[in-house]
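Troubleshooting log. The previous run stalled partway through. Resubmitting the same two chains, unchanged.
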Amino acid sequence: MATATMTAKKEKSVLWDWLTTVDHKKLAILYLVAGTLFFVKAGVMALFIRIQLMIPENDFMTGQVFNELITMHGTIMLFLAVTPLIFGFMNFAIPLQIGARDVAFPFINALGFWIFFFGGLLLSVSWFFGGAPDAGWTAYVPLSTREFAGSGMDFYALGLQVSGFGTLISAINFIVTIINMRAPGMTMMRMPLFCWTGLVTSILIVFAFTPLAAGLALLMLDRIFSGQFFLPDMGGNAILWAHIFWIFGHPEVYILVLPAFGIISEVVPAFSHKRLFGYTAMVFATIVIAFLSFMVWVHHMFTIGIGPITNSVFALATMTIAVPTGIKIFNWLFTMWGGKLVFNTAMLCAASFVPTFVLGGITGVMLSMAPVDYLYHDTYFVVAHFHYIIVGGIVFGLLAGLYYWYPKMFGHKLNETLGKIMFWSLYIGFHLTFFIQHILGLIGMQRRVYTYLGGQGFDMMNLVSSIGSFVMGAAIVVLVINIVYSAYTSERITVRDPWDARTLEWSTPTPIPEYNFAQTPQVRSLDPWFYEKVHGDGTMKPAEPMGDIHMPNGSILPFMIGLGLFIWGFGMIMLNMDNPIIPPAIVIGVGFVITFGMMVLHSKEDHGYHIPVDEVKKIEKGVG
Amino acid sequence: MADHIDVAQGLPANPEKATLEGKNKFLGMWVFLGGETVMFATFFGTFLGLRKGTVGGPTAEDLFSLPLVFIMTMILLTSSLTSVLGILAMKRNNFKTLRTCMLLTVLLGFGFVGFEVYEFYHYYHEGLGYTTSAFASSFYTLVGLHGCHVLFGLGWIITLLARYWNAGGVTLANAPKFYSASLYWHFIDVVWVFIFTVVYLLSVGGA
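Second attempt completed without errors. Output:
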């Protein structure tokens, strides 16, 4: 990718290039690779969980291991798999879609990735130091306090703290990028919907990950320095954790699902060959969902006993969310209505997202009714509900995005036959696994319990559910095979726009030069690329003359700061270890010095470099 | 884009926002402070929820002395004033005054931290350890986190001063940096105003 521009600087080794890159397109790939690895890891955990639950009174694993697996499955999927995957797509597509050469803070972009990565690593090494966290991904106190949970919870508190900070600064970067870096003519209401959902998600991250940071700090202080926040005997309050966690936790659902909505809103118009129906209403619905997402957290706590008035208010607020979501669903349907539909893998994933997500939404409204929630609470009905949202919604959205943007990212399409095999096996496997869990929940099977007695009517349904999960696992294997197979056999793409799509990213040459746009494009309409194809001469009008292009320098400092935070976090955890070998204070000190030392080094002014105009012309001729 | 500003005729009126990079830093800093506000709000909420949980240990009324906290408040407010004066000097392209004002801000900031260390030391000897009660933990966490922010801000401004002490003048590259640091410093100050009200006045006033 863009190797030609490297001649302007001295040649770098491949590894050094990737460790120091600040290019949003390369960081996008790093995010996708890291996210996929975590996704596969948490997916394998899910398979182990389903093997354990396949037959009654199974002794495939102990209750302790089961607890660790469900905790890590949830935590990794939400924080370390889906979050980086959406960030990967946001990193790749948003600057291109708004006509920018890079994000607002390329250095912060790299920093966000490496901090997230090392935070994830910190959480993951828990397996080697006394076991993984085991108190559930919600880490409810007092289950997660020093009294009841092992050292795994220290890794949970510190690992998520570090990776959450990376996520936070990346989100700030996206907000500033979208507000300040848009090309001339790209008004807010001409932005592709993916940029809108990216913006709104980033705002949600800024206001939801910060309470999480505070909550995790309380948990960490409670566990490592014997703080007294959660113990009623010492004047503390156990409900406090639940409130703080869900003030973060509910917006988190929308943080993950809104970008998926955005991807669907890109893919559906592209393969219906129609503009998105009700663009303004879609933007409005996105903002309303984000606004409401902060006022519904208590619906996760209906049975905690806060009282009927509070429960009613939050139940009503929760049901309200169905309205903007419904608007979105109908807009996607009307976009497809009467369109020239092309059902390739991307479109299959996007189209199947709609009914699946509706099912998850309907059970969501069922769960929002506080009185009956007492019936559903902590059963497999809840598990089925949120997997319909997360797998049926987010995972299908991400897969649609992967198949859609793959040619732009890697210069070739993914194989369609393998893609369709993947889609159908995933789709069938998914419904097989989770639909039946609604019924399991309704007849009373408890979630979070590592086994069950036979003869209660659970046996057959659990077996079916487990078989479904193996089919899903096979689908992901097919996806991996597809990626490798396509890399060797797929035809190289040399055209700009292999899908006949609508937005600005398809106006760039493939492969995309390091600077994205030789001349910043002038945007004249919503769906600017489509507009120029129909009303113009099929090329974007430049908004500036050809000139030298300013580029930021790569830097190893983001990697080092991430490493420093990892060492610091590990030192903090060592304070609780029985036999730490190295004194924890030294480890903490080393991490601290690396982190802040690198920040001081970063204060040196770095003005980047320029790609001379002749060089730009040469590259443009090469790829044009 | 707007990267090339002609400074031959002197600096533009708002050197911190004249370049795209400066505009980005300006907006990014504000968004970051928005997030920080929510984080502090969570700690304030924790303190408000737990402040009656003294379980027989020292209470707020027993410990807090308003004169000491008043002095601390005045010191921190003054440090905010000096940083404003510094930024005003920066906009007039008066680098020497900027430098002096920021140095004063740092000195006042250290004065504040000194008082806070003394305050915590004093409470500790009155029997309020970190683990004594939920009140103690939430008090030390909220006020201590603010203290850490002050220390981070001090480190930031000192780094800038060390880096640019001999820079010779305000430039379009260093103006956004000083401006962001001063914005952060004001934020710390505002948080302290809330701590003064919610933690100290409310407790001593018997609310």
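Takeaways: Helices of chain B lie at 20-50, 60-63, 66-91, 95-125, 134-164, 174-204. The mean pLDDT of chain B is 92.
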